[in-house]
Every structure is written in C-alpha cells, then in structure tokens.
C-alpha cells in the first residue's frame, strides 16, 4: 500500500481526491495539508465525508510519501516546489496549469492517459490536464493522430460553477449564476495552449486555428463540448477511427445515442458522439470537470505510475436522478 499526501486540501479538486483515495484499496491517505484549515476535521469543509473519515487537515508535511498531489491555485505549485523538497521516491501529480506546457526547465509529463500512457507509466512528475483541455482534446486528437485536421476547428463548451473553484467572485455568486448563462475568455482561454500542444505532438504540421468559446452554465459540475471541423470521409470512417483510437481506453467511450451530462457527472468517463453534416464532422464530448477533468484523471495517472490496474478506485456511478 502506498502513502499519499495532498497539498491544498480545502478546494473542490482536493475534496474529490479525498473521496476517491479513502476508498482506493492500494492507498493510505497520509496527510491533507491546508494552511487555512489546519487542525480542523476534514469533514468540516468536505461535509459529505461526515462519518467517512476522522482525518483532520494538517499544518505539517511528510517528505517521504510515495505520491503527492498538488491541489493549489494556478501559479502556486511551482513556488511550492521551490520552497519544499521531497524524497527521491516521491512522485508528484500537479493539478494546476504550472507545468502543463513542455519545457526544458522541468521534467513533468503531460498526463492525458489516452494518448500518453507509456510516458505516464515511466514518469516521476505528472502535469494533470485542464478540464476543458481534457474534453476538447479527447474530441479532436483522434483526427490529429491520423493527420486529418485539415481545416479550422470550432469549439463551443459549457462548464459548471465548480470549474471556477471555491473562491467567490462576481460571476460565482449564486444570485449571478442561477438562471444565467455567459461566455468568457472567447478565443483566449488558457487551455487552448495545451490543446494546441497535444495536437502538434500528433500532427506536427498542423497550422490551422482552433477557435474556442467557453461558457459558464448554471449547473454545479460537468462540461458539455461540441467541436466541428471539415472532414472528407464518411461518418462510418470517422467512427471507425475513434473506436480504434479508444479501443483500450479505460474511461473514454464512443457511443451512438445522444449524450448529456447526467451520464458522466460523478464518474471518470468521457463520452463521445460523432455526427456528419455535409462536409463537417461534429464531435460532442461530455465529462465531469472535477473527475475526468481533474481529480479522477489524477488518480488514473497515479494508477498507471504505480502499475495498478488503471481503473482502480474509479468505478464511480453517475447520479442520474
């Protein structure tokens, strides 16, 4: 059994990690570090864990855990690792943006299991993908892998309120979010960089635009993304490519029926549906932003790094009603 630690234990992604790791048969949750909640019971913040655990948030860090999850705000993971040293055995999985872009200055591997499985298995440091980046990359990378992204890609995606984290802002208050819908960061969302990086890794000559309009929905969790691009082949040809790509994927499925968020919320699944309209291929992708888009995928990466069965601890059921 491996020892795990969590840094930044009070946020949404940490809450999901705690829920998964408490039930993971190969993991002991050694500590949950939080500067703001040190000494308080974990269930004081993550209230659904009442009766599930007696753990309290820690103000101390064990340097010798086998795996460390960084659930810090964007920009803080890099600073934290500069200020804290860990054992050579400690593997690190960062859930922020800090290490997602490849650089000679760090050795983090981009943790998208469907396309980077072998590198993840050998990695000591993992940069967990962003939630929008996961949903969109899984929708378009099968085409890139076949050098079939030959025109601009257009993406429209909606995320739930948990995508903004726990800190209150003008656009996260209930009174603003409820019965409301809005676009933000049009064509400029930070996840575009990592999506583009993944596309170029598979289709090196790709030079077409990826146009992305992110939206805020008035629901708590989940991402619904639609992407379309020109595709000269038939729908049957496209479906064959996608099913072949994800044939051995533990959580990504190509389906024929209409898809919606209730099928994936509270699971680590990504569902993909393909449709052809004239010369355009439409790919719809749905995930839970906190699980497949964050903590579930982080545990999926951990399973690969420690040679556990990939789906261990992640057979989660959707709350359909």
TrEMBL record:
Semialdehyde dehydrogenase NAD-binding domain: residues covered: 3-123
SMART domains per record: Semialdhyde_dh
Listed GO CC annotations: cytoplasm
PROSITE patterns (alphabetical): ARGC
Stored SUPFAM superfamilies: Glyceraldehyde-3-phosphate dehydrogenase-like, C-terminal domain, NAD(P)-binding Rossmann-fold domains
Cellular localisation: Cytoplasm
Keywords: Amino-acid biosynthesis, Arginine biosynthesis, Cytoplasm, NADP, Oxidoreductase
CDD domains: AGPR_1_C, AGPR_1_N
Keyword Amino-acid biosynthesis: yes
Source taxon at top rank: Bacteria
InterPro entries xref list: AGPR (IPR050085), AGPR_AS (IPR023013), AGPR_dimerisation_dom (IPR058924), AGPR_type-1 (IPR000706), NAD(P)-bd_dom_sf (IPR036291), Semialdehyde_DH_NAD-bd (IPR000534)
Catalysed reactions, semicolon-separated: N-acetyl-L-glutamate 5-semialdehyde + phosphate + NADP(+) = N-acetyl-L-glutamyl 5-phosphate + NADPH + H(+)
Positions annotated as active site in the UniProt record: 131
Enzyme Commission (EC) number: 1.2.1.38
Any one GO biological process: L-arginine biosynthetic process
One Pfam family of this chain: Semialdhyde_dhC_1
Signal peptide interval: none
Molecular function (Gene Ontology), one example: NAD binding
PANTHER family xrefs: N-ACETYL-GAMMA-GLUTAMYL-PHOSPHATE REDUCTASE, CHLOROPLASTIC-RELATED, N-ACETYL-GAMMA-GLUTAMYL-PHOSPHATE REDUCTASE, CHLOROPLASTIC-RELATED-RELATED
Known function: Catalyzes the NADPH-dependent reduction of N-acetyl-5-glutamyl phosphate to yield N-acetyl-L-glutamate 5-semialdehyde.
Annotated family: Belongs to the NAGSA dehydrogenase family. Type 1 subfamily.
Protein name: N-acetyl-gamma-glutamyl-phosphate reductase
Gene expressing this chain: argC
């Amino acid at each position: 059994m491996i020892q795990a630690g969590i840094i930044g234990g009070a946020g949404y992604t940490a809450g999901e990690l705690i829920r998964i790791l408490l039930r993971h048969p190969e993991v002991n949750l050694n500590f949950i570090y939080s500067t703001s909640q040190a000494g308080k019971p974990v269930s004081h913040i993550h209230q659904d864990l009442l009766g599930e655990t007696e753990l309290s948030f820690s103000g101390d860090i064990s340097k010798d855990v086998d795996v460390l999850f960084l659930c810090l705000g964007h920009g803080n993971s890099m600073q934290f690792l500069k200020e804290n040293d860990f054992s050579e055995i400690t593997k690190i999985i960062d859930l922020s943006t800090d290490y997602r872009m490849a650089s000679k200055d760090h050795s983090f591997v981009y943790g998208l299991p469907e396309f980077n499985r072998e590198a993840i298995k050998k990695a000591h440091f993992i940069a967990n993908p962003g939630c929008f980046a996961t949903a969109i990359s899984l929708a378009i990378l099968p085409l890139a892998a076949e050098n079939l992204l030959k025109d601009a890609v257009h993406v429209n995606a909606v995320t739930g309120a948990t995508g903004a984290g726990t800190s209150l802002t003008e656009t996260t208050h209930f009174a603003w979010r409820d019965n409301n819908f809005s676009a933000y960061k049009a064509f400029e969302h930070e996840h575009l960089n990592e999506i583009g990086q993944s596309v170029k890794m598979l289709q090196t000559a790709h030079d077409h635009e990826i146009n992305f309009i992110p939206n805020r929905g008035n629901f708590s969790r989940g991402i619904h993304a639609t992407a379309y691009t020109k595709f000269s082949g038939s729908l049957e040809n496209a479906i064959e490519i996608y099913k072949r790509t994800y044939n051995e994927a533990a959580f990504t499925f190509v389906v024929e029926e209409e898809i919606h968020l209730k099928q994936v919320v509270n699971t680590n699944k990504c569902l993909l549906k393909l449709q052809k309209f004239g010369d355009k291929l439409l790919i719809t992708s749905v995930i839970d932003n906190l699980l497949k888009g964050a903590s579930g995928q982080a545990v999926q990466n951990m399973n690969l790094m420690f040679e556990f069965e990939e789906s261990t601890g992640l057979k989660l059921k959707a709350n359909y009603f």
